[in-house]
Automatic annotation (TrEMBL):
One of its GO terms (biological process) is translation. This is Large ribosomal subunit protein uL24. It comes from Methanobacterium paludis (strain DSM 25820 / JCM 18151 / SWAN1). Residues 42-69 form the KOW domain. The gene is rpl24. The lineage of its organism: Archaea, Methanobacteriati, Methanobacteriota, Methanomada group, Methanobacteria. Belongs to the universal ribosomal protein uL24 family.
Length: 117
């Protein structure tokens, strides 16, 4: 793997979906780190996250939408109002989020958490 920034950017821009899913990993809170023995986990619809940086700092909300093409996450309540009155979600990069509560309805996600890494 190259260290050159242009090649690192190219890898992200041309990454397939199974790699992009890994790129939307979000840090876990301290309690979740101790419970699951992991530092980060790919985010999923229904997870509760806390915004750590940016205009919506310290805002907590559920994940409403995940944009794999642009590697951005839309959080409930982190929205802007357009001049015509419509509300749009403010896209947030995964590095600026922290997972507070996991949605454990998915059997495969439970298997990921139980296996040792």
């Amino acid at each position: 793997m190259s260290k050159q920034p242009r090649k690192q950017r190219k890898l992200i821009y041309k990454a397939p979906l199974h790699i992009r899913h890994q790129l939307i990993s979000v840090n876990l809170s301290e309690e979740l780190r101790e419970r699951y023995g992991r530092r980060s986990l790919p985010v999923k619809f229904g997870d509760t996250v806390k915004v750590m940086r940016g205009d919506f700092k310290d805002h907590e909300g559920k994940v409403e939408k995940i944009d794999l093409k642009n590697l951005r996450i839309m959080v409930e309540g982190a929205s802007l109002q357009k001049p015509d009155g419509n509300k749009i979600y403010h896209p947030i990069h995964p590095s600026n989020l922290m997972l507070i509560e996991l949605d454990l309805d998915d059997e495969e996600r439970n298997n990921i958490l139980e296996r040792k890494g």
